Amino acid sequence: MFRDRRQAGERLAEAVADLGPERPLVLALPRGGLPVAAPVAEALGAPLDVIVVRKIGAPGNPEAAIGATTAEGPALFDKGVLVALGLTEGDLADRVAEAQAEARRRLDAYRGDAPEPEIEGRDVIVVDDGLATGMSARAAVTEVRERAAPASVVLAAPVGAPEAVTALEDLCDRVVCLSAPPDFRAVSLWYETFPQVDDAQVRRLLRRS
Same structural domain for residues 34 and 132? Predict the structure, then answer.
């Protein structure tokens, strides 16, 4: 159990620092990943930036995520759910375009005039506040690998569902997850305080970095 996202990030920073990244770059998944990522970046003396992921909802039930995408990366889907719903990726092209446009809008709003960070040759640490299905993290890591040639990619989160952590290990050089409880259920259950993070807080944390 973590007191809050800040304390979770401080504990996560210790584990990531033990890996000895030489040219670290920390990329947070907003909004909840920012308060976790900030102390990681501070501990490593690394730049902090964001990688925005938007979930893709099912037709008729937008709250039920069946995929995820970033502003530039490919859309990733839960193949089993697509089959169960009788859908193809082509059926969701409009939803993908909408999600990517919203990701670009949010990225511009968060980053402002700051330049896009250089990924090539960096030890990239992708940080979120928890891994439930792992779909958002998978989309983020996929974009990092396709955008440039990082020296390494580490996915770091304080807590995650065991199956999500295992599924992501093949995609990353390392997954750092402090706790993967069998009775995971939801990210929020593993924090004593888990408030919503708003856009203003995201921008404030980025300005401090």
Answer: yes
Radius of gyration of the chain (CA): 16
pLDDT at 2 over 90: yes
Last residue of a domain, one of 64, 84, 109: 109
Are 92 and 58 in the same domain? yes
CATH number at residue 105: 3.30.1310
d(CA 68, CA 77): 7
Q: Are strands 76-77 and 61-70 parallel, antiparallel or unpaired?
A: antiparallel
- Render pLDDT for 9-54 as a digit per residue (tens, 0 to 9): 999 999 999 999 999 999 999 999 999 999 999 999 999 999 999 9
Residues 6+ apart with CB under 8 A from 144: 27, 51, 119, 124, 126, 150, 153
Residue 86: alpha-carbon gap to chain centroid: 28
What is the domain extent for residue 79?
54-109
User: SS3 sequence, 170-182?
Assistant: CCCCEEEEEECCC
Identify whether the C-beta of residue 75 lies closer than 8 Å to the C-beta of residue 54: no
Cα separation, 100 vs 77, in Å, equals 14
